[in-house]
Amino acid sequence: AFDKTVAKDKSLAVGFFQRGFVHLQLEMYEEALSDYKLAFSLLRKNPFIDYKQLGLRHILYAWEVLYSTAAAQCRLQRWEEARATLDKAVVWRPEGRTAILALALARVQDRLFLEPMQVPPGEFFRPRKKEVEQLDSKDFLGKPKVISSIIPNDEYIGFEPLRPQKQGFYEPRADALR
Q1: What CATH number does the domain located at 1-128 have?
Q2: Distance, C-alpha 169 to centroid of its chain
Q3: Per-residue pLDDT tens for 126-142?
Q4: Which residues of the chain form CATH 1.25.40.10?
């Protein structure tokens, strides 16, 4: 399901983030690491992305993505990379989250695995009811109309400015003006 989701929206950082979590659960560590790195790059140097406009009551923080990246690196026994990633997460962390990252740095120092972050269970993309009600199909173009030409025996079908021009063909006659 996550593969289908990220195939439809290649910029959905939270989709790659969650797929990385699933890959970790399935012990597909290289794929998880790749998804986490892609999710971080899709944040585009922003500290977070708020998905409330899309109907997901979750904010994806850059430090969470980096923390999960370090968790994948731990599973791959890349302890120095995990430490460097956590140091980078400390820069991106919001105030008040220092304890989590300090504990994670200590666990990496002791070569213990980290548990990755995830979107809280039960959170789904669920648009608000008032937004869904407005999704009725609307006919913006209207009904097609047949427009006849004022030029007798005109058989041209197409967009008028693209009509091939003939010299003297479109000049009105004196009796046509009456």
Answers
A1: 1.25.40.10
A2: 55
A3: 666 766 666 666 677 77
A4: 1-128
